[in-house]
Amino acid sequence: MLRSSFALCCAVGRSTQALVRPSLQSSLRRSWLSESTRDESAGKSFIELAKEQGMASMIGRQFPSKGGYDSVLSENLVVTTVNADSVVACVKVTEPLANAFNTLHGGAIATLVDVLGTMALLAQDSSRPGVSVEINVTYMSAAKVSYQCSDHLFSELSFLTRFHERKYYKLNASLIVLAQVGSDITVEGSVLKLGRSLGFTEVRLSDTMTGKLIAVGRHTKAFPQQS
């Protein structure tokens, strides 16, 4: 298997990224989330968890989802800050969130506007998540997909260097560059106004390293009156 993998990666006339990426896909692991945060809220949505324990209980935990549409964020989003009327989260841009250009999909951004806008409302009043009546998003720049190599992949390459030392160094350098390409983004949702029947929020997405603004969204939610 090792020799066939090396032969594939050294084939002439094909780009290094195109060759390496299939191997990376089979070896990727999402290790940036603490193991202690996993499965703590299995079977509960973030709305249910906020009602039971408050939004502050979600800091540092794996994003809770009941398996619906927002489950795509379950291994990518971690809440870092909760204030009285705002919530900040860190999001790793990975392939499930990407478009055909390997950047953060517009639909994923809209989902983040939905989720962080709702979280901001829950930070102010955990009993009123509301229902969406309007979402709009302005897209300003792209966020690249992040790749993370596993120790197993590098161990395999280290083994190969004994037989193909010169080409190994070239391949390894390409892998390191590829592993560093990508984005961690900061998403901040804040309450603009909270009334009896409507809540208005704003969500800003920016590159965590550079501060570059990626998108700005507005999310309006209604609070149906209980009969």
Explain what the structure shows.
There is one protein chain. With 227 residues, the chain is α+β, with helices and mostly antiparallel strands. The protein has helices at 2-9, 16-27, 46-53, 106-124, 151-160, 165-180, and strands spanning 77-82, 86-92, 131-139, 184-194, 198-207, 213-222. It has a six-stranded antiparallel beta sheet, covered by helices on one side. The N and C termini lie far apart (65 Å).
Give the overall form: globular
Whole-number average pLDDT?
75
Stretches with pLDDT under 50, minimum 5 residues: 1-39, 149-157, 159-181
> What's the total helix number?
6
Number of strands: 6
**What proportion of the residues form beta strands (DSSP E)?**
15-25%
Strand arrangement across the biggest beta sheet? 1-2-4-5-6-3
How is the biggest beta sheet arranged? 6 strands, antiparallel
Topology as H/E string?
Answer: HHHEEHEHHEEE
**Radius of gyration over C-alpha positions, nearest whole angstrom:** 21 Å
SS-based class: alpha+beta
Distance between the termini: 65 Å
Helix amount: 25-40%
